[in-house]
Write a sequence for this structure.
C-alpha cells in the first residue's frame, strides 16, 4: 500500500520526468563523462589505470599543450646550437654564469632536450587516448537513432503547440518529410517524430584533435629529417645538390646524405631594381635570379626565375633567394707581369645601399720583385655609388658610380697552418703593409678598368671593367611541411565547426484529443543555451502549420465561424519558451 502511494506521489512523477528529460539530452556530446577521482586500492594495476585516466583527460591534454607552448619560448629567445652555433658560443662568452645553467637545462638545444621530448610524447599519447574512445562513441551515435520524445515536451527550453483537424498520421508523415528535407536525421518513434542535427560539431571536434596529432607528427619528422643549407653563387657559377657544395649546412638527427634531392642549377644572371626617386629612394623593387636547372643526373635543363618568396620547388626541396651583393673582377700580377689571380670576388653588404667589404687572398703563384714566394692579402671596400669627397658609404645600391678601395698586404696568410679561417677576414699577424712614396700605408681608390701598382715593382692589382653580381640561395628540405600545412588547415576548420555549429534535437508529437481534434506539440533541445534552437523550431513549426492549419477552439467565445484557418490557431505557450 505504501509502495503504491510512493510511486504515485508528486515527487515520484517529478523524478520520472527528470529521467525522461535527461534521456532526451543524452549523448549530445562525445566528451567523456566526468567521474569522481578516487585513489585506487588495487596495487600497481590500479595506479596504472588511474594514471591512464588522468593522462587521457582533456584537462591534462590542455595542460601539456600549454607546457609545450611555454617550452618553445626559450627555443625562440635563446640561441640554439642547431640553428647557429656561433651565436651560442658568443652567448657563452658573454654570460659566464648563465651558460652552465642553460647547459644543464638543455636550453641551447630545447627541441631535442629530454624535458621537451617528454612533454611532446605525453601530449601525443594524451591526444590519442582522448580521440580513440570519443571516435568510437561518435560512430555509435551515427549508427544509432535520436531518442524518443519525453512525455512532457512543454518542459523543454523551446516549445510550441496548436490544434488541427488533420489526422495524427498525416502530421507525423509531414513532419518526418520536413525534417529530412532540412537535413535532420529523423525517424518515427511511437506517437512522435524524433530528429537530430549538428553532428558536424562533434566531427569538427574530432578533426581538430586528429589535426593536432598530425601537426605533432609533422613537426617531429620535420625536425628529424630536415636539411637546411646555404650557397653563395656568382653569375656564371654552378651548383649541384651535394654536401661538399654547400657553404653552410645543418640537418636533423635522422637525416642521411642520400636523402638530398638530386638536382643542379647554374646562375645565369641576377638583376635587381630600385626606386630612384621619392621618399623610398633606394628601396628594392625586384630581385630576380635567372637560372637553368635540371632534375637528376641526366635531367633536361630548364630555364626559370627565382624571386623573393617565390622559390624553386623540386620534389621535397625548395630553393629560396635570400641575399645578393657585388663581386668585382680582380686581376693580380706578380713582379714579372704574370697573372697569378683572376676571379670575381664576392663582397658582403654592410648596409641597405650595399656598401660592401671583403678580402682578396692570393695564396699560390705570387713572387715579389726579388723572386721570393709570398702571399698577398688585400682588403677590399666597395661602393656601388660613390658620392665623392670623403664619403665612405654608398649613396645608392645600384652601380651608378662604382669605386673600389684597396689595402694590400704581403707575407703569410696563415692558411698553411691548417687552421680554418673566414674568407672574408684577413689575419695580419704575419703580414706587412705596402708603403707609398711618402712612407705611409699604400691605399688606392680604383674605378672600373684602373690598376694599382705595388711599390718596388712587386706587381699590380687591376679592378676589371666588369662588376658581377652574386646571389645567396637557401636550399631547404622539410618532408613534413605539407602534412603540417594540412593539419593546420584541418585544425582551423575543425575548431570553427565545433564552435559555430550547435548540436540540437527536435520532437514532433501528434495525438488525437478527447474531442477528436489533433493536438500537435513541437519541442527543441540544444547542447547549450542558444537563440538558434527556438528560432529554428519556430521556422519548422510555421512550415508544418501551413500543411496542417489550426482548428477553432470551442472554449474561445471570441472565435468566429467565418474566421480564416490562420486566425483560428490556439498556441499553448507560443513559439518560444
Amino acid at each position: 500500500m505504501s509502495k503504491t502511494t510512493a510511486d504515485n506521489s508528486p515527487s515520484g512523477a517529478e523524478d520520472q520526468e527528470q529521467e525522461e528529460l535527461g534521456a532526451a539530452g543524452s549523448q549530445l556530446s562525445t566528451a567523456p563523462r566526468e567521474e569522481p577521482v578516487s585513489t585506487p586500492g588495487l596495487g600497481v594495476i590500479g595506479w596504472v589505470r588511474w594514471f591512464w585516466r588522468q593522462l587521457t583527460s582533456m584537462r591534462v591534454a590542455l595542460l601539456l599543450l600549454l607546457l609545450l607552448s611555454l617550452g618553445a619560448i626559450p627555443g625562440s629567445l635563446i640561441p640554439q646550437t642547431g640553428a647557429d652555433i656561433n651565436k651560442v658560443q658568443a652567448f657563452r662568452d658573454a654570460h659566464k654564469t648563465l651558460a652552465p645553467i642553460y647547459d644543464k637545462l638543455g636550453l641551447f638545444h630545447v627541441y631535442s632536450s629530454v624535458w621537451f621530448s617528454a612533454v611532446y610524447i605525453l601530449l601525443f599519447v594524451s591526444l590519442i587516448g582522448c580521440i580513440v574512445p570519443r571516435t568510437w562513441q561518435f560512430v555509435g551515435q551515427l549508427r544509432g537513432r535520436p531518442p524518443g520524445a519525453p512525455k512532457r515536451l512543454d518542459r523543454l527550453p523551446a516549445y510550441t503547440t496548436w490544434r488541427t483537424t488533420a489526422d495524427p498520421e498525416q502530421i507525423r508523415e509531414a513532419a518526418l518529410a520536413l525534417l529530412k528535407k532540412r537535413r535532420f536525421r529523423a525517424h518515427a518513434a511511437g506517437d512522435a517524430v524524433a530528429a537530430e542535427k549538428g553532428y558536424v560539431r562533434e566531427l569538427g571536434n574530432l578533426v581538430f584533435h586528429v589535426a593536432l596529432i598530425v601537426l605533432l607528427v609533422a613537426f617531429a619528422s620535420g625536425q628529424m629529417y630536415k636539411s637546411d643549407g646555404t650557397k653563395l653563387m656568382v653569375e656564371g657559377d654552378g651548383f649541384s645538390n651535394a654536401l661538399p657544395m654547400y657553404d653552410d649546412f645543418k640537418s636533423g638527427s635522422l637525416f642521411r646524405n642520400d636523402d638530398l634531392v638530386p638536382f643542379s642549377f647554374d646562375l645565369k644572371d641576377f638583376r635587381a631594381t630600385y626606386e630612384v626617386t621619392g621618399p623610398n629612394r633606394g628601396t628594392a623593387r625586384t630581385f630576380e635570379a635567372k637560372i637553368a636547372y635540371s632534375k637528376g643526373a641526366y635531367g633536361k635543363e630548364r630555364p626559370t626565375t627565382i624571386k623573393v618568396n617565390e622559390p624553386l620547388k623540386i620534389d621535397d626541396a625548395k630553393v629560396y633567394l635570400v641575399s645578393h651583393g657585388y663581386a668585382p673582377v680582380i686581376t693580380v700580377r706578380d713582379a714579372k707581369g704574370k697573372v697569378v689571380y683572376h676571379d670575381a670576388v664576392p663582397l658582403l653588404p654592410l648596409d641597405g645601399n650595399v656598401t660592401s667589404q671583403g678580402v682578396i687572398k692570393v695564396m699560390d703563384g705570387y713572387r715579389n720583385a726579388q723572386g721570393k714566394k709570398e702571399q698577398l692579402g688585400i682588403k677590399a671596400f666597395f661602393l656601388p655609388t660613390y658620392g665623392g669627397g670623403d664619403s665612405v658609404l654608398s649613396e645608392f645600391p645600384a652601380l651608378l658610380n662604382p669605386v673600389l678601395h684597396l689595402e694590400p698586404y704581403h707575407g703569410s696568410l696563415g692558411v698553411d697552418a691548417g687552421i680554418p679561417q673566414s674568407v672574408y677576414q684577413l689575419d695580419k699577424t704575419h703580414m706587412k703593409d705596402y708603403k707609398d712614396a711618402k712612407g705611409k700605408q699604400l691605399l688606392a681608390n680604383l674605378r672600373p678598368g684602373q690598376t694599382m701598382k705595388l711599390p718596388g715593382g712587386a706587381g699590380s692589382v687591376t679592378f676589371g671593367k666588369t662588376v658581377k653580381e652574386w646571389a645567396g640561395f637557401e636550399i631547404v628540405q622539410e618532408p613534413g611541411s605539407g602534412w603540417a600545412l594540412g593539419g593546420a588547415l584541418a585544425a582551423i576548420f575543425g575548431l570553427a565547426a565545433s564552435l559555430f555549429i550547435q548540436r540540437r534535437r527536435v520532437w514532433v508529437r501528434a495525438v488525437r484529443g478527447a474531442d477528436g481534434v489533433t493536438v500537435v506539440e513541437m519541442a527543441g533541445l540544444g547542447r547549450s543555451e542558444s537563440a538558434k534552437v527556438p528560432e529554428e523550431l519556430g521556422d519548422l513549426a510555421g512550415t508544418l502549420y501551413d500543411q496542417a492549419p489550426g482548428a477553432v477552439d470551442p472554449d474561445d467565445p471570441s472565435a468566429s465561424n467565418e474566421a480564416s484557418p490562420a486566425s483560428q490557431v490556439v498556441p499553448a505557450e507560443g513559439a518560444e519558451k
Observations:
- The longest strand covers residues 459-477.
